């Protein structure tokens, strides 16, 4: 499994478990993610339905299966990407096209 596979799994698992839009996923910053004992908390800033930019927090619980657990997938991606501050999706790595591998987030 390569780095892209780890990234893509995190994108799909977190996106599916939260229902976030692609723009919301790609707008996540490492500072928006808090790891808790039961899961993770993700802070989403401005979105299509939140034009005032109030934001919201979404809790994500750990899954039963390691292969589909969004918390494990995101934790693994954070280890791969590094714990440096900044966007979950570095600008040069953001997707420009369409398709499942290019959903663009948490990169």
- Major beta sheet, specifics? 3 strands, antiparallel
Number of DSSP helices?
Answer: 3
Structural class: alpha+beta
Overall mean pLDDT score? 78
Low-confidence stretches: 90-107
Number of strands: 3
The largest sheet has its strands arranged as 1-2-3
Radius of gyration using CA atoms only? 13 Å
Shape: globular
Share in β-strands: 5-15%
Secondary structure: helix percent: 25-40%
* N- to C-terminal distance: 16 Å
| Helix and strand run | HHEEEH
Molecular structure report:
With 107 residues, this protein is of the alpha+beta class. 31% of the residues lie in helices and 14% in strands. It has helices spanning 3-18, 22-26, 70-81, and strands at 33-35, 39-44, 56-61. It has a 3-stranded antiparallel β-sheet with strand order 1-2-3, covered by helices on one side. The chain starts with a helix and ends in a 26-residue tail after the last helix. Mean pLDDT is 78; it is low at 90-107.
């Amino acid at each position: 499994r390569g780095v892209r596979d780890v990234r893509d799994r995190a994108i799909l698992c977190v996106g599916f478990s939260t229902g976030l839009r692609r723009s919301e996923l790609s707008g996540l910053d490492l500072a928006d993610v808090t790891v808790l004992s039961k899961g993770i908390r993700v802070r989403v800033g401005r979105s299509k339905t939140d034009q005032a930019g109030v934001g919201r927090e979404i809790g994500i619980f750990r899954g039963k299966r390691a292969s589909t657990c969004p918390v494990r997938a995101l934790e693994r991606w954070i280890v791969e990407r590094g714990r440096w501050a900044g966007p979950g999706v570095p600008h040069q790595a953001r997707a420009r096209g369409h398709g499942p591998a290019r959903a663009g987030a948490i990169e």
